Amino acid sequence: QQSTALSTPGTTTTITRPPKPGLPAPQRLRNLLTQEETGLGNPNHPILLPCVYDGLTARLVARAGFQATFMTGFGVSAAHGLPDTQLISYEEMASTANTVAQGLAAVALESGDPPIPCIADGDTGYGNAVNV
Length: 132
Description:
about 40% helix, alpha/beta, globular, single chain, three-stranded parallel β-sheet, two-stranded antiparallel ribbon
């Protein structure tokens, strides 16, 4: 595993990237979460999921070496100049999710590592039981 040290004034955090062998991102995320739930993860290093809201932030998070990321509904709304009050459309959210995925995939191609998993905020679900 590769490690990256991030420093801020007064602190240093080491982030370990996932190994290169190619488990699909959803399976790697399940494994990561299962390790935390069962206590097999490192209690001194919780899972850090920095939020992304576009392709650039996705690339920055992936290049920084985090194990996974989270696409924030608030961030996507704000990047579109809207408050987080369900004003962003399903199409805009899906388009942003595709842009985030492309950013993560681009870093994976550059680094030779598999793309990191991303949890996407589904906001209000965009419908009712008929849409599920």
